[in-house]
Specification:
The two termini are about 35 Å apart. Helix content is about 70%, strand content about 5%. By secondary structure, the protein is mainly α. The mean pLDDT is about 85. It has one domain. It is built from nine helices and two strands, in the order H-H-H-H-E-H-H-H-H-E-H. The radius of gyration is 23 Å and the shape is flat. The protein has helices at about 5-10, 20-50, 60-85, 90-95, 105-115, 120, 130-135, 140-145, 155-180; strands spanning about 95-100, 145-150. The protein has a two-stranded antiparallel sheet with strand order 1-2.
Length: about 180
């Protein structure tokens, strides 16, 4: 990370996350949870077929698999939000969920957000318009749960990188000064 990158990261800390950042984080989360779920299902099917006299074909139990994926997604997002105030996809993009007043996310607000989360989809996408057009970039579930998503790059690490880069420039300048004499 360059000196300018560190300063930009520190300047963005705490600003409301935009639609593209949130969409990319959600896409990363969908990829992660789908791959983990598919691998778990494959291992479960293999284990049952190999260790028992029964033959299981989970591809034919589409409804059960779909319900299981929704339960897994609720577990994935619910625990991520309640424990870390971010999902793995949000971590990749430097995002964090906070309460609407800027304080840290607590378990109560995380659970309300999880319960309200499907409203973004059940409103045929209208629940997401606030992310695009709202000043605070809040979806319907953010408004219900009184939460917001903000940029949260590691400002302390960015500050240290900035100081280290500044110190390196000073050392270079100091090292070159005697050579010019």
């Amino acid at each position: 990370m360059t000196d300018g990158d560190a300063r930009r990261a520190m300047a963005q800390q705490g600003h409301y996350a935009g639609a593209l950042s949130r969409l990319l984080a959600y896409g990363a989360d969908l990829l992660i949870l789908t791959v983990v779920y598919a691998v778990a299902l494959a291992l479960l099917e293999f284990g049952i077929n190999a260790a028992t006299p029964w033959s299981v074909d989970l591809k034919s139990a589409y409804g059960l698999v779909l319900v299981g994926e929704f339960v897994w997604a609720a577990f994935y997002f619910g625990n991520s939000w309640a424990i870390f105030a971010r999902s793995p996809g949000m971590t990749l993009l430097g995002l964090r969920i906070v309460q609407a007043d800027g304080s840290s996310l607590d378990r109560h607000h995380a659970i309300v957000r999880l319960i309200a989360f499907p409203l973004g989809f059940l409103t045929l996408g209208l629940g997401f318009l606030g992310i695009i057009f709202g000043r605070t970039h809040q979806a319907i579930y953010d408004r219900i749960a009184k939460t917001a998503v903000v940029y949260d790059w590691d400002a302390e690490a960015a500050k240290l990188r900035d100081l280290a880069a500044h110190g390196a420039r000073r050392r270079e300048a100091h090292a070159q000064a005697p050579a010019e004499r």
